[in-house]
Design brief:
heterodimer; A: mainly alpha; B: mainly alpha; 19 helices; 74% helix; rod-shaped
């Protein structure tokens, strides 16, 4: 019995040592544990990306993105990195969601909620999305709130590039592939995003 | 697509310097003009990286892993060869390709069917390659027993005349039956040459019905292949005249014409039917002419054989042995001669009544042959002259008419000159 458990543990460890593309090959060959490992690696980054893209239900974006990966696993040929593929799917889902939400008569993100002194809807969403932890110290809490607000105020293209680079960890080439632009444009957007964030977070420097 | 904008290139260089710095590069590696800015961004990056990532609901994980387990089971299940083949076949591409190929095959086969049923080519081949049809037939009559070899040697003219050896009344009846109730294709082919003499053929020609009736006989189904083959075997040992007659079995060409006529009727193509009618009439005329030539040739051969037999037997054996085998051909020859004389008279009357040039030509040739056979040299000469005249009129009718018109004028002129 223990021998079986040991073998299973070794197999899982071997899977965890594999890169994303090798895990996809294993999953396509019928090993469902490989997809579990891929999910554990990327689900939070994908949710953070969905939040920064303004998705109303970021968990749905994560679920739908991984279900598409499951359905199209045999079509993945490894021509691009799995992470690029996954975030491209997530980005498309966010775009679709934002198109659907565009026609809803909802309140503005910049409008203050409740009284005039209260936070805006954008600030409230950013706070909820990041999931502020009560155990954080006050400085981190303030930085996190200011960061979320500054990020939400970025243009969509700059926010998309910055999120994919800083949070999801994609290279500029992968971002260019995912957003279907060229790499220099991506870097230019990245510079403007950095500049805007630096100015917004100058108090925390 | 790369850009050459200096601003964009500067942005790219800035970002590359930032990336090198946050990847562990030293501040001294960063260009001086960007050093302070990049250092502030590097500190911001460190604080952002320290922020906790959001947690995803455990329900999402269970949903995804359940779907993954199901999909992995499907992926791991080996697919049968037939299932893979079915999947491949019923993709849109192969289905379209097969449908296109099937449509092409159907179109090609339909085109081939149309070509093969076309009346022009098939009928042309049939008329050109097959012997012309013979419009004579008679009920089956057992061939008379062949004479012994000795008798045949002494009387060589008896063998070709075997068909004409039947008594005159019988032959007359046979000629009437030829276009009577008995269908042509029902007549056994083997019986035809044995009981069919040249005079009899001529008689049946004269009794030929109008063209409408002849067409009905053309429309009869062709004889079976076995019958034709047997006919060829049966006639293999006989002389050329008989074999030519055997080759002119009415069924083959008639059957082809009948089939073609049916095909044309199915298509309701009136012009083709008219053309077919004209070709059939032409084939009919050709058959009559060819038959007449055959008869003439056979009669000439018979005459020569009789002359040779008379020349060889006269000086040596004045009193040959009389037996049944020799007496029967003599009586038959006598009766045949009588009937031939009557036949000549009837044919001549028929020729004089006929106005159609083709028919007249055929009758004249038949009459010439019958007259030669009957020993009527005068009638034969007359028939020959008439044949030449009719043929000349057919070739150049205008010339003949002008010549005829000029004859009275010449006669009048010659008469006037003689008077003067």
């Amino acid at each position: 019995m223990w021998l079986l458990q040991m073998a299973t543990l070794l197999a899982v460890m071997a899977l965890e040592a594999m890169d994303d593309e090798a895990l996809m090959e294993r999953f396509a060959a019928g090993d469902s544990r490989a997809l579990g490992i891929l999910y554990d690696r990327h689900n939070r980054a994908l949710k953070a990306f969905a939040i920064q893209q303004g998705a109303a239900r970021p968990d749905d974006v994560v679920q739908d993105a991984f279900l598409r990966v499951v359905r199209n696993a045999t079509g993945f040929k490894g021509q691009s990195k799995f992470r690029t593929w996954l975030f491209t799917i997530g980005r498309n889902l966010c775009v679709d969601a934002s198109r659907r939400d565009r026609f809803r008569n909802g309140p503005s993100l910049d409008a203050p909620m409740g009284s005039d002194e209260g936070p805006t809807l954008g600030e409230r969403i950013a706070s909820d999305a990041v999931g502020l932890d009560a155990s954080r110290n006050t400085a981190d809490a303030q930085f996190s709130r200011s960061y979320d607000v500054a990020l939400a105020n970025l243009p969509t293209e700059q926010r998309e590039v910055f999120t994919l680079r800083e949070i999801s960890g994609l290279s500029f080439a992968e971002i260019a592939e995912a957003t279907q632009t060229n790499e220099n444009t991506v870097k230019s957007r990245m510079r403007y995003a950095l500049k805007a964030l630096r100015e917004a977070l100058a108090d925390f420097a | 697509m790369a850009t050459n904008d200096p601003t964009t290139l500067d942005d790219a260089a800035f970002v590359d310097a930032y990336e090198r710095r946050i990847a562990g590069g030293l501040p001294g590696d960063v260009p001086v003009q960007w050093r302070d800015e990049i250092e502030a961004m590097a500190r911001m990056h460190q604080r952002i990286a320290a922020l906790p990532m959001p947690e995803v609901s455990p329900a999402v994980r269970s949903v995804v892993l359940t779907a993954a387990a199901q999909a992995a089971a499907d992926h791991a299940q080996p697919q049968s060869v037939f299932a893979r083949l079915a999947d491949w076949l019923f993709r849109p591409g192969p289905v379209l390709a097969m449908a296109s190929a099937a449509a092409l095959l159907i179109a090609v086969s339909a085109r081939q069917d149309k070509d093969t049923t076309a009346p022009t080519g098939a009928e042309a081949v049939a008329v050109a390659d097959r012997p012309p049809p013979v419009l004579t037939a008679e009920p089956y009559v057992a061939p008379p027993p062949a004479p012994p070899a000795a008798v045949a040697a002494t009387a060589p003219a008896a063998a070709p005349m075997a068909g004409a050896a039947a008594p005159a009344p019988d032959r007359a009846e046979a000629g009437q039956v030829a276009f009577g109730d008995e269908p042509l294709h029902n007549a056994p082919i083997e019986a035809k040459p044995a009981s069919l003499g040249p005079a009899q053929v001529a008689e049946t020609k004269l009794q030929r019905a109008p063209k409408a009736e002849a067409e009905q006989q053309f429309a009869q189904p062709p004889p079976k292949q076995a019958q034709v083959a047997n006919a060829d075997k049966g006639y293999a040992g006989k002389d050329d005249a008989v074999r030519d007659e055997a080759a002119q079995v009415p069924g083959a060409a008639m059957g082809m014409v009948a089939n073609n006529k049916a095909a044309a009727a199915d298509k309701n193509q009136a012009p083709q039917e008219e053309a077919e009618q004209a070709r059939r009439n032409q084939a009919l005329d050709n058959a009559v002419l060819r038959k007449a030539e055959d008869i003439q040739r056979g009669a000439y051969g018979n005459q020569q054989a009789e002359n040779r037999a008379a020349a060889s037997s006269a000086p040596s054996t004045p009193a040959p042995v009389q037996n049944r085998a020799e007496n029967a051909p003599a009586a038959q020859a006598e009766s045949a001669a009588n009937s031939a004389v009557a036949e000549v008279a009837r044919l001549r009357a028929e020729v004089e009544k006929t106005s159609d040039a083709t028919k007249k030509l055929a009758l004249l040739k038949i009459l010439q042959g019958v007259a030669i056979k009957a020993g009527d040299a005068k009638t034969a000469g007359w028939a020959k002259a008439q044949v030449a005249a009719v043929e000349a009129e057919r070739v150049a009718p205008g010339k003949v008419q002008r010549a005829k018109a000029a004859e009275p004028v010449k006669a009048k002129a010659s008469g006037a000159s003689s008077v003067e």
